[in-house]
Predict the structure.
Amino acid sequence: MEKALIKDTLTKYFGFANFRNGQEEIISSLLNGNDTLVIMPTSGGKSLCYQLPALLMKGFTIVISPLISLMKDQVDALIKKGIPSAYINSSLSNEETNDRLIRATDGEYKLIYIAPERLKNKTFRNALSSFNISIVAIDEAHCISEWGHDFRPAYLHIVDALESLPRIPVIALTATATPEVQDDIISILKMRNPARFVRGFDRPNLCYSTENTSEKLSRVIEILNKSKNGASIIYCGSRKRVESFTEELMKSSFKVTSYHAGLADKFRKYAQEKFINGETNIIVATNAFGMGIDRADVRNVIHLDLPSSIESYYQEAGRAGRDGQPSNCVLLYHPADRKLQEFFINSSFPSFQNIDSIYNYLFDLNSTPTGSKSYDSIFLSDSEIGNALNLPSLTVSSVIKLLEREKILKRGSTHGLASLQITTSEERIIEYYENVDSRKKKVLEALLRGISSEVFSKPVQFDIQHFMKKYDIDFDELQDTIRAFEFADLINFHFPGFTNGITLLAERMKCEDLPLDFEAMKARKQNAVKKLNIMQHYAETDECKRNFILNYFRDNEFSGICGKCSSCLNLFPKDRVISSKQKYLQTKVFEAVYELDGNFGKTTICNYLKGIVDKQVKKYDLFKAQFFGTCSEYSFEEIKQCIEQEIYKGNLLSSGELYPVITTSDEITFKLRGIKKINFNRKEINPDDHLLHKLKEIRSKLAEKNHVVERAIISDLTLRKIAIEKPDDLSKMQNISGIGKVFMQNFAMHFINVIRNINKNIYDDNKTELTQDQKRIIDYSQNGLSLEDISKKMKIPDVDIARQIQLIIESDFKINLSHLINKTTLSEVAKYVERKNNITLRELQSKISVGTGFAHLRIHLALARKQLGIK
């Protein structure tokens, strides 16, 4: 499609002269018919990526979106732009739904928004297959992954719907998905060779801050008083907290509104509209608020409680500063905050014992024996059941949702009178009966036999509970078939008006025989705890907050600290006035680092200055040295903080990755040149000069190949340690101070091979030897094992297996890769390698239609480079 037409459409309907970063590539991918995965931060412009192609392609686009409350707003906004759109959800009557489906068939719409729950309806899915659908767009796609932060079982219905449709491009979009969740999305949706676009998680206008405090109300008031312009969102971990903080802020004369899922729909909508329209600039809310909120001038997003995961926090904090102006993301943290999230996790992932207790209690209420059904509905609230069993109501709610999902029970009562009227002729009913499956025949036959013939002329009421029992029809079966009859315009039907209560659908059985995957639930709970641990680490770490987030999402586009988050500002305030006590500590730190001559890291230096005899101090007799114990009155943390401040200022230098060592800068070294350095046993630490020379040669080659400076591969100091200790396997290499994970994964074997060859008096470092792991990989590959199978057998991640295969390829050893290589993919990779010899895996993944992940892509890249003779 011509670029001019795409640009014209962008300007005509959306009013933009140019695309944002990544949008044009994504749109081109869809227009070329590719399945596409888009990871783009909040406010990055994800919606445009499917809305614009929808206008350019024949037919209409189905948009699957999780929040019914926002669909109308999204559709209204599109209609204002002149884009014919509609939504179909449970807020519509059957007549309205049918009308919109007819209009869709007639081609009146370009976009139709639906909730994932709608796809559970087989009749609706069947209707979809007859439509001219151009694209299926799945918003908030992370909801489909059990390992994401917001798993929604309803999203699993999407897979069945996609399988019933002809081959059309699918685009899955989310603002928060780790690489593992991205792979899960692709796998579950069965996306075909998707183009994957991950576009910058860095939001340079946002300042991330964490403050450790129990006085949260006063701190919120202080932040709000300083905010003269724009809006503020204050997130709380529970509804009760929302209500209490709203009340306290109102007492302090702030104009504030509140939002949580416990409010009636009309109140939530009212609060949301007040905030969006600027009638109020402060909203206190649970995480139920925010999705789809289009207010650009949010200056503060304040979290009063610890979020459940980095994904949740990033998504919620990302609602600040959508206009690009400086904005604050503040987490007010106290270690006790974790208890609330632990409560939610334990409630959301109930134990087998809790499931067993609640399940059997419900059947015991009606004295239903094992193997029998209970036809009497239960009119108890979650809290009443919880009180009876001494369990939190949230745990009861989670168990009932779980059992409802597996069709073991259903919310709502079947007690009362239903109403039925047949709206067509007997002839059409007979014709329909003769052409439907046995399930529909059974229900239709029961309705005709069990209800008065007046049903053809007027609504007739009947006892639905008695009807189901008499004709052995369960509630779920009845509900599905009634919807099919309504869709076929055969009947008007109204279920009993009771929405409370619980109806047990299946026969009673032993809890261990229930169709529940208890191991999967246990794994999901462990994953939730893991995510919470990482979130707490974010709150407590001194690491640059921005970098912590970028590292979590594996966004390696930026280096260096942000210089403005709470970690950077608290640890490294450049305008700090130094007291005499601080000046003394600073001086002693400089002197000790100089004296120790770059041989130790922060921990040893801190212990040395405090006068603590640790392993290193004892080993090298440092307790006899000049500055040992000269800062005994300072805390370990004070000394450590001083070292980190001076590293930030550039007065001290840190080299190495996992175990960095500290040295003084040239300027400080010059000032301290009169101090005597410790005379270590040089015999012990002098490297093998010949080996050191060979190691420097290989480092130089690797640096040139990877287009980085040599010290980015490994520092001189750590290289000397390798030449001293001569590690000839990975475990020995990993034990050397200064060796990091990146070096171990990408470069360690190059240096180990040099050491092995030196030991054998083989000075040609190109004559490498295979490691035991590499030999096993070659054997497994020869037998046709997949990368995943090799990974399982060796208990090594597939990405590490791929790195070893890369080394095998580069070292000219023979390995059978025929079953691991896709010829089309290899050809495409080779095309890009020819254009750019030093192309990275990340660049490749964004350019080509490869849905096999980094591990497989690494093998394709290594083989392509080998075949092209590129070293």
The chain has a mean pLDDT of 84.
